[in-house]
Amino acid sequence: MSELGATPILFTPTVAADQVVNNLTNDQVTLAKLENQLSTGHSINQPSDNPAQTVNILNLKASVARASQYEANASDGEAWLQTANSVMNQILSTLQNVQQVVLSADAPNTVNQASLDGMASQVGAARQALLNLANTTYGGQAIFAGTGSPSQINSAGAYDAGIAYDSTGRYVGGSSVPTRTVAPGISVPIAVTGPSVFGSGSSGLLGPSGILATIESDLRSGNVSAVTTTDLSNLKAAINMVQDQAAIVGAQYQRIQTLSAQATQTKQALQTELSAVNDVNLPKAATELQQQQNSYQAALWAASQLVPMSLVDFLS
Questions:
Q1: Domain ranges in the chain?
Q2: What distance in Å separates the CA atoms of residue 100 and residue 272, rounded to the nearest whole number?
Q3: Fewer Cβ within 10 Å of end Cβ, the chain: N or C?
Q4: How many CA atoms lie within 13 A of 259 on its CB side?
Q5: Separation in Å, CA 199 to CA 81, 97, 234, 309
Q6: 299, 27 in Cβ contact below 8 A?
Q7: What single string gives the DSSP state of each residue in 132-174?
Q8: pLDDT band at 149 (very low <50, low <70, confident <90, very high)
Q9: Nearest CA to 249 among 13, 73, 4, 77?
Q10: CA distance 95 to 122
């Protein structure tokens, strides 16, 4: 039997040169990758860097984008409700001042028609102040106008999202309460509609036949009896309604503050997770880059030794 001998490996200069070229090419690719990581701060800059991890990063980025939108929605809703909360307090203060005026109309032997006319002017001014408060805006939108109302027409005949009531005190807003989605499946009301606060018709506060207009009219006509009985009773009922709505706004404000904080925490947690997956360790990458550059320079020197020396090299 004859033994099979191992086939000898011929390591020619050409083979050596090809190997050196391959090594240099690989070093250049690694250098470019490290330089790109240091430039962008990300360990993965294109899908080919790590296809499996790329999918995870894309999913995390989508989750961060959704969380950022929820956070923005919550922040916007919080600002709406903060504005509404402040306005509700001003409305109550204005109505309580009107109540004091009405009560003072019953002072015996001290109130004459001139005094009643002065009181009527105060009530008229209060009604105008309430109308202005009813048209309070946030971000160019009337906070008491609800949603879905094509009838918000201003005095110039143009659509105006910044009004909930026209100049006569007629409600021109919608019937639906605006909301903001602050988490998956969670939408929060960010306001209340005008009629729920100011009422409507003869039991409302703003219209030409409403409570305040009636009080003003009765004061000017000297009908003190009506002012201090029926008018006062209607005014107290309106104040109670405003207080109820103020409580609702306050509760909504507290809830959205909590949800806003949760939305921020969720976004930050997702950003931290994304950073752990995709952010490069800068000190480590810088060290690796320096090592790779040294390796590359050594490979260049090795490659230079493979080039045959010429007569000129000997002569020099």
A1: 58-275
A2: 57
A3: N
A4: 25
A5: 20, 19, 11, 102
A6: yes
A7: HHHT-EETTEETTS-B--TT-B-TTSSB-TT-SB-TTS-B-S-
A8: low
A9: 77
A10: 11
As a whole number of angstroms, the distance between CA 203 and CA 84 comes to: 22
In one letter, which amino acid is 91? I
Q: Which two tokens stand for residue 310?
A: 């010429």
Query: Out of 3.30.1330.60, 1.10.3720.10, 2.40.340.10, 1.20.1330.10, which CATH number does the structure's domain 58-275 have?
Result: 1.20.1330.10
In the predicted model, what is the mean pLDDT of residues 197-222? 95
Q: Which residues contact 149 (CB under 8 A, 6 or more apart)?
A: 172, 173, 174
- Write the DSSP assignment of 3-51 as a string of letters: PPPPPPP---HHHHHHHHHHHHHHHHHHHHHHHHHHHHSBS--SGGG-H
Tell me if the pTM is above 0.85.
Answer: no
